[in-house]
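Mods, move this if it's the wrong board.
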Amino acid sequence: MLKILKLLRDLVDSHPWSFSVVEISVPTLEYLYFNVCSSPDQGVTSLFVEDVCMLSMQVLQSIMRSPAYRSPLDREADPSRRQLVEGAQQLLSNFFSAERLDQMTCTVVGVHMTLKAYDLEKWQAEPEEFHHENDLGNFNETLRSESEKLLCKFLETFKGQTISTLMKLLNQVQGVPQGGADLQQLLLKESMYNAMCLAAYDLHDSVNFKMFFESQLGNDFSFQREENKIIVRRAAYLLAAWVADVPEEMRPQVYNLLMNQLLPCEDMVIKLAACAVMRVFIDDWNFYEEQFHPFLHSALRNLLLVIQQAYDFDSQVQAFNVLCLILERMGTRVKPFANEIVAMIPDVWQKAQDQSLLKIQILNAMHRMMQCLGASSVATYNIVIPLLQYSVNPDGPESVSIFEDALLLLRSVLQFAAELSPQLAGMLLFVTTHMQRSTEYLPISAKILEAYMLVGGLPILQMHGATVFNTLLEVTNSVNSRGLTMVTPVLDIILQIFPPTDLALLEGIFFTLLNRLGDESETDEALIHIACILSRLAVTNLAYFLEMLVKYGKERCGNEDVLFDRLIYVWTEKAYASSSSLKRKILCVGLILTLDTKHSSIISRMDCIGDFLLEVANEFKLPNSLDNINVAEEWHEGEDVDDYACIHSQGEEDPEAVRRSRLWSADPVNKAQVVGMIQERVASGAFPLNNDEFKERFKLLSS
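Not the wrong board. Structure tokens:
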């Protein structure tokens, strides 16, 4: 029989018209109806076979899902096709009568979706396994899962009749007394609540959830009897399924139920259900931190207990996932309870052994904790540093799975570090090793390199400069245009902190940038970044800038004039494609300084150079025009960094932002007065005003 049912299911999917023949479909549908409406408790002679019932449900779903039976009739359609469609629709309409739908829905909800004796036995014997199989998605086909699918298909295809039946069943279970219900009544109620979870969207207009909670659901969170846990678990999931209908004023009551009744419960199934529901409410659009704050300590304390008491790693992962979400949403409000969370980490990490998913959650939690603690996160270094030394090592045994999350944690640690400890400084070599091997995590790796340069300054370059420069040389040689824009901010910082007299150590990188400058396939954004680095080089050491260009032009181009022509073209024409005021000022200041060289290639292109300078200078006519600029955002404009966002603690000054601000305050580009610089070059003759238009524009600029 099972093989015949599988054949019918495949027949409906692949050749629906063969099935729609009356002689085949009518007896088959009656047989399917008989199987779906059968139940295992009809007596010793019951013909109920669970596998047959499941396959019958699958065939019914295929029939209702088939577009051949549901397609609208087109007047111009082939007459024979119209006849087939009309016949199939009439046949199905006769079969899916209101009485049959009502009976099938009642049986599905009242019999097949209920918890069975073996479910309750597993609940008692292996609670965590029961939770993960039934509540977090079971990929095995079971009678309950097929029943839930069939109910959803009824709601989609016959919404009105199915809702009517569900409301009838809901009224029946509402009449069940709270304390005196027998086990069968509790199982029926649990199944009906499960149906309400599945039909939350469809029942929205039929159920006033606030009134339902106050009159019925709120009273179901009672542990007066052991059996009541069956209802408590499902009532919690019902809250999650109807979260959009839980009004703002009712949410503290829900939080109180979760924190003070469900999470402290001794039953691990109830605890894990509360974790799942809490995640839904905290991740909801209508979550307000102020409402949740009174319950924060209780939530954290109970989550830590779940993590410590759970024997299944999946349970710990689930609890950590909720913990990370709380840390993310509540921010600095978590500070008073940070010690409790951090103190638990070493023991859980040690017990995790080779469970990479759990270690990912631990790293993620510590990453969020760094964000919450801000500058005071230094107190956690005795725990965080050993985690990083193990997980940031690209040659570590679990690096394939945990490396990215470890990088995020390292990024947070560096963001709030006051100084580089020897252990932190040593981890720079792990990052550069990975960057030399792969570009997989280039966005976050480049940001970590930036952070190292900002917090470590010249000492970190004196310690690991050769490795950093070799890494940047390999990366600039191998990445595409997008990758290049990720590493140029690192070079900009290096040029500001590295001794100008030692810039020859970076010559290979500059030559690579000049190579790419001449590549017509580079994007405008990449060309702007290259020009900005060369302009920064001119600001830092003009003599070396000119020497390097002449050397490259003779070695690679045969004629330095070709190189200057390309550079000035990018410098003056591509800059307009950038929306960054910072980049335009770097380009403008660098180009003004190159006028002092009075190089023949510069002089011969004064028309386009003058036009660019007189145009861009107007933007920086006012003194201190870039005082409030966000240097990081200006350099990373247009870059998709949401996945690697590092949000500093609310209400605290971001140490990394302070370091960037100090660097910008000392930056010659920031101090440069563009209009004054142009006036000086005009007066000295380095910037000749060759035509009346230039003279008029210069006069307006100087006024």
